[in-house]
UniProtKB/TrEMBL annotation:
Keywords: Heme, Iron, Membrane, Metal-binding, Monooxygenase, Oxidoreductase, Transmembrane, Transmembrane helix. InterPro entries: Cyt_P450 (IPR001128), Cyt_P450_E_grp-I (IPR002401), Cyt_P450_sf (IPR036396). Its main location: membrane. GO terms for cellular component: membrane. PANTHER family: OS02G0467000 PROTEIN, TRANS-CINNAMATE 4-MONOOXYGENASE. It comes from the Eukaryota. It holds the Pfam family p450. This is Cinnamate 4-hydroxylase.
Length: 258
């Protein structure tokens, strides 16, 4: 399974293939956040728009599909499933069963909720994404074209390396690990910089000390930001899940005036 997942997700070729898409999705968030800030003239929650960005990055890599907006019915349903999953995972009922064994027989209702949610989540991904890609791959002209990650996974299933259950398991877990955890990392990075502007200055000073004045940080971004815009490199903030963000991705924002 590790070998199957490496090719469509964790190679230099993947970075080059999807880099422009990553940057386009990030730019769309920056533009929309700026317009929303001007329109509302006050603070607003950016989490939902960042969540859409992460969904689009992952869905375009995984399924060659894109969600149009935060009002897209597919986005609403996917985020509802993720929220419900997080709520159940953090439930005290589960913790009670872990630490007080005598209570385990009384947790059947909780376990039934978990099984019901899992079955609905798996059906959502299978019906809306996996089966659609199966049909595309079955088309004679597209049979030998592996366009996105699910194509590689389905090809491995066809060769007997994975079972249908493995396929759905991968899709379901990628949706959580690649989207929610990276989203939390981005939120943390933004909050850290907005609340503590000195952090960004410290990071930039360290980069200047280590790399020097003339060494570019990335292929596409200048080291010195445009006037009035600050930059923060968050590529190392995501831990093991940072592989799902473009290497040295940059989030641009206008600092809050005192």
């Amino acid at each position: 399974m590790h070998r199957v997942m490496t090719l469509p997700f964790i190679t230099a070729h993947v970075v080059q293939q999807y880099k422009a898409m990553w940057e386009a999705e990030i730019d769309a968030v920056v533009d929309e956040v700026r317009s929303e800030a001007v329109a509302q003239g006050a603070s607003f929650v950016v989490r939902r728009r960042l969540q859409l960005m992460m969904n689009n990055i992952m869905y375009r890599m995984m399924f060659e599909a894109r969600l149009e907006s935060v009002d897209d019915p597919m986005f609403i349903e996917a985020t509802r499933f993720n929220s419900e999953r997080s709520r159940l995972a953090q439930s005290f009922e589960y913790n009670y069963g872990d630490f007080i064994p005598i209570l385990r027989p009384f947790l059947r209702g909780y376990l039934n909720k978990c099984r019901d949610l899992q079955s609905r989540r798996l059906a959502f991904f299978n019906n809306n994404y996996v089966e659609k890609r199966r049909k595309v791959m079955a088309t004679p002209g597209d049979r030998n074209k592996l366009r996105c990650a699910i194509d590689h996974i389905l090809e491995a299933e066809k060769n007997g390396e994975l079972t249908p259950e493995n396929v759905i398991y991968i899709v379901e877990n990628i949706n959580v690990a690649a989207i929610e955890t990276t989203l939390w990392s981005i939120e943390w990075a933004l909050a850290e910089v907005v609340n503590h502007p000195a952090v960004q200055s410290k990071v930039r000073a360290e980069i200047m000390d280590v790399l020097g004045d003339d060494e570019p940080i990335t292929e596409s971004f200048e080291m010195v930001p445009p006037p009035g815009v600050e930059k923060l490199d968050v590529s190392e903030k995501g831990g093991q899940f940072s592989l799902h963000i473009a290497n040295h991705s940059v989030i641009a924002f206008h600092p809050i005036s005192a």
